[in-house]
Amino acid sequence: MIDYSNSKLLVESDKLRSGTVTWKSPSNLAIVKYWGKHGIQLPRNPSISMTLNNAFTQTKVSYEARENHDELFDITFRFHGESQPAFAKKISSYFEKLLPVYPFLKQLKWDIESENSFPHSAGIASSASSMSALALCLCTIEDELFGSLSDDLLFDRKASYLSRLGSGSAARSVFPHWSVWGKADFVNGSDDEFAIPYGLEVHDDFKSFHDDILIVSKDEKSVSSTAGHQLMENNAFASPRYDQANRRLQDLLVAMRKGDIECFGKIAEDEALTLHALMMASNPSYLLMHPNSLEIINRVRAYRKETNNPVYFSLDAGPNIHLLYPENIVHDIRPFIEEQLVDLCVDGFWIKDWCGEGPEQL
Ligand code: 2P0
After folding, report:
1. If we measure between CA atoms, which residue out of 82, 303, 342 comes closest to residue 212?
2. Less Cβ crowding at N or C end of the chain, within 10 Å?
3. What is the location of CATH 3.30.230.10 in the chain?
4. CA–centroid distance, residue 333 to ligand 1 (Å)
């Protein structure tokens, strides 16, 4: 187990200073899904995700010295320029968790501004991008105050670890292209406590892969992901599911190293439907798919059969469809979306995205 607790990360009062740090961090789409957790945000099975390019959160953290160190955290938070006290409270509980790691959190006054590249309530989960952006800012601030994170590998590992404590899937957003989170015997260096990069291992076709997001509903989810993870604890299929995820990840990684898009696509679709089947088999059961999600799935499968174009679907914990395909068919797939799928999207809204280079400090 990593223990990042460090009571030395306190600033001597005459050395307290102010500063501003900004990071832009992307969302990610899991192909083998993380669904079920235990302990302190530890996954029940390993997962792999594609780091996105266009769906990101940009977070600016300003800090300055504060007089009363013993009181609660001093945090103001604005989202797209608007004060959000409810979010400030969430950040406060996150800071509480991080206090043994970063005792300096109470010595400073925090002003946090955040915005997403995708429209608010576009039905896109933003916890991966927002929590990783915040964790990256904190790691940079640690380095500014103490000079203790100049090694890039250590920086990324700690950023992934701290992101995980905010939201499990956020652990994977720290790395370019592809990232594996969770211990798997067949992945060197994999770990439950932080994600690792997996971009160098995969065939070039997967480094430029597309993921267009078809927005089927903008409604708030009836069951949050955090509640969904918890429901796995009493799910009758939990144990075989975790074994299945391990086997699928092993097969998927072989396919991704070889450049076997068909095998990749089959596993991606099986995982998406398994995730939603697990929700339907939870107690109480629930459904996050929408009739249009199913119609899009049927149209994608019919189109693939007719054209032989390797386009596949995935789903996150929501009704929106992610269309996965290699770069070389982008000029077929975009017209297919416009001609055959856009009528199933809310307000005709869909987002072009693809495999990205990972977070960036601005
Ligand atoms: C994933 N999802 O692997 C899975 C698949 C959504 C579908 O992890 O409670 O926001 O913050 O750890 O990471 C979404 O859940 O949940 C998620 P918490 P998170 O990406």
Report:
1. 342
2. N
3. 13-200
4. 28
Instruction: Give kind and range of the element (H or E) at residue 59.
Output: strand 47-65
20's CB contacts (< 8 A; 6+ apart) are 60, 61, 62, 63
Beta strand 108-116 pairing with 74-79: parallel
- 30 CB within 6 A, ligand 1: yes
How far apart are the CA of 225 and the centre of ligand 1, in A? 6
**Mean pLDDT value across residues 175-202:** 97
CATH class of 13-200: alpha beta
Q: Are strands 74-79 and 47-65 parallel, antiparallel or unpaired?
A: unpaired
Nearest CA to ligand 1 atom 14: 225
Average pLDDT over residues 270-291: 97
Q: Report the pLDDT value the prediction gives residue 347, as an integer from 0 to 100.
A: 94
Write out pLDDT tens, residues 168-181.
999 999 999 999 99
CA distance linking residue 322 with residue 324, whole number of Å: 6
Give CATH 3.30.70.890 domain extents, the chain.
202-351
Q: What is the CA radius of gyration of the chain?
A: 21
- Take atom 12 of ligand 1 and give the residue whose Cα is closest: 168
pTM as predicted: 0.97
Q: What pLDDT is recorded for position 121?
A: 65
Tell me which CATH code domain 202-351 carries: 3.30.70.890
Whole-number Å distance between alpha carbons of 177 and 200: 9
Name the β-bridge partners of 112.
61, 77
Instruction: Using CB atoms within 10 Å of the CB of residue 222, give its burial: 0 to 12 exposed, 13 to 18 middle, 19+ buried.
Output: exposed
